[in-house]
Amino acid sequence: MCKALMEKDSLEFTDIKEAEERIAPYVRRTPLLRSTFLSRVAQGEIYLKLENLQELSSFKIRGMVNKVLTLDDRAREKGVVVVSSGNHAIAASYCGRLWHMPVEVYVPRVTPRTKVEKIKAFGARVHIVGDSYDECARIMREERGELPDRTRVYVDSSSDPAVVAGYGTIGTEILEQHPALDQVVVPVGGGGLITGIGLAVKTLSPQVKVLGIQTEACPAMVASLRDGRAYEEYPSDPSICEALAGGIGLLPFAYAPRCIDAVCVTSEESIKEALGCLLLQDKVLAEPSGAIAAAYVLENPQEFRGKNTVLVISGGNISFQILLDQIRALAGEQNEQ
């Protein structure tokens, strides 16, 4: 276990089960859909865990609701502050409205306008700073001093145990919906999502493989596991997956041996292709980071032959421009046929 983690920052399966009961009135039990198209491509059974149909169109609400419900009244009065590429901030702003709680969010300038508008719609105060997630986080720390924040409760999207426990409820749902599962494939940015899902899956069914996927533009977790150190900041090439850019959290790095079997990368072009395939073939509207697991299947179908696999479609807050580009590309392909 990473020395940087204190005992109070530990996470166990019991935390996930408690979160499951705690957040049930506020989140949806999302459907598991068999993808006929990807199953045919892979010559296996491919299912999609549709967190794009979650409240707010993202899995992030599971973690934020669980965190807020563990805060005492005094902490809620102080409010929360978050750094986010979009979806974590949307969830924080939504919770602020739900529990009449002050919320401040820091998002980088690359955050899609659709996400920024959604954050503002729920009432949070928004700071748009920095050209990347990592730069945005540095600016937040400089402006507000050392964490934890002195005037607000800082809620980390990847290393806060209560947040990650909320994400873990996806893992318990998946195994209830598909007990005969062979493997689950999860998008990886900061690493909180795969840590929560991996802990749940490995506790209930240790034989199930947990595979993480990153964009080749920012393979922070791949590099961290390779080098044996957590890269909390990591450079990113231009990417369609702004939600997966930046470094990883200390908690995910510490729990990786327990929760993750492997982390692989996929190309930006395959992610774009996966967006179109999900939309055209399965009528699933995913944002780029939510389609990354499907992209890996398209690139490496042989790894899924004869297996029962669940792909986590983590969100559907796609920018209008990217959606328009996809529709135009699909329309062009159909006209050529």
Structural class: alpha/beta
Strand content: 5-15%
CATH topology descriptor of the largest domain: Rossmann fold
User: Structurally, how many domains make up the residues?
Assistant: 2
Overall shape: globular
- Biggest beta sheet attributes: 6 strands, mixed
Estimate the mean pLDDT confidence. Answer: 94
Write down how many β-strands occur, each being a DSSP E stretch of 2 or more residues.
10
Write up what this structure looks like.
The chain is of the alpha/beta class and 337 residues long. It has two domains: 215 residues, 3-Layer(aba) Sandwich (Rossmann fold); 94 residues, Rossmann fold. 46% of the residues lie in helices and 14% in strands. The chain contains 14 helices and ten strands. The strands form two sheets. The chain has a six-stranded mixed β-sheet with strand order 1-2-10-7-8-9, sandwiched between helices. Strand 4, helix 6 and strand 5 form a beta-alpha-beta unit. Helix 12 crosses helix 14. It is globular, with a radius of gyration of 19 Å. The N and C termini lie far apart (55 Å).
